[in-house]
Write a structure and sequence with these properties.
about 220 residues, alpha/beta, 5-stranded mixed beta sheet, 5 strands, globular
């Protein structure tokens, strides 16, 4: 924000604003990204005025996030894009720990040794991520539908199915917006009193990133 000379917008406020733009009737938001997970309970009216009634986020541990899934998929020589298809054709489900990547790896090795298919193991991994979210982020709080699932992990159909199953939601009660990865950016763009980005501010950001060795 300082490099672009624009206001800093709180991430919960930005996510809430972006979700309501895409799903105006949203009551609850599940956000699971690469290294963070969040929960928001909303009160939005017909004029898209938003109140955040409750919110929570995960701690420092990356277990239960997209990077957690990535690590375990790579270990089994699968790309993240293959997980959804594997899970959809899985027969059975392995019991995988979701609180720690070390325990998850051990459980996955044991499941392989017991003859579980890769699909069953991946299904267990997806369910482990959702159970971890339920235990460490929700802390027993109810999910009032419509529930909107956003963040990069929303592209994983295996996790979507796990959310439906573990939270006992119907397909009509769970919404996955097409632009689920960009709700925070959308929220920042439409919030009132925002400052438009200029070519010069973006050029300054590119120079700073280049100096830091970051490719844009």
């Amino acid at each position: 924000a300082s490099l672009l000379q624009v206001p800093y917008i709180n991430e919960f406020k930005a996510i809430a604003r972006g979700v309501v733009e895409l799903a105006p009737n949203a009551k609850t938001i599940i956000e699971i990204g690469g290294d963070g997970s969040r929960y928001l309970k909303l009160d939005a009216n017909d004029h898209r005025e938003i109140g955040i009634l409750d919110y929570e986020r995960n701690g420092e541990c990356a277990a239960g996030t997209g990077s957690f899934i990535d690590q375990q998929a790579v270990r089994m020589n699968y790309s993240v894009d293959e997980i959804g298809s594997l899970v959809s054709h899985a027969e059975g489900c392995a019991n995988i720990a979701g609180r720690c990547s070390v325990f998850a790896k051990t459980d996955m090795i044991h499941a392989q040794q017991r003859g579980y298919s890769p699909g069953a193991i991946m299904k267990g991994l997806c369910e482990a991520v959702v159970r971890n979210y339920k235990g460490t982020v929700l802390h027993g709080k109810p999910l009032e539908p419509p529930v909107v699932f956003v963040g990069g992990v929303a592209a994983n159909s295996g996790v979507v199915k796990a959310i439906l199953s573990i939270f006992h939601l119907t397909a009509e009660e769970l919404i996955v917006p097409e632009l689920h990865q960009y709700v925070g950016a959308i929220g920042c763009a439409v919030l009132e009193n925002g400052t438009p980005l200029t070519r010069s501010s973006l050029a300054k950001l590119n120079v700073e990133q280049a100096n830091a060795g970051i490719k844009t």
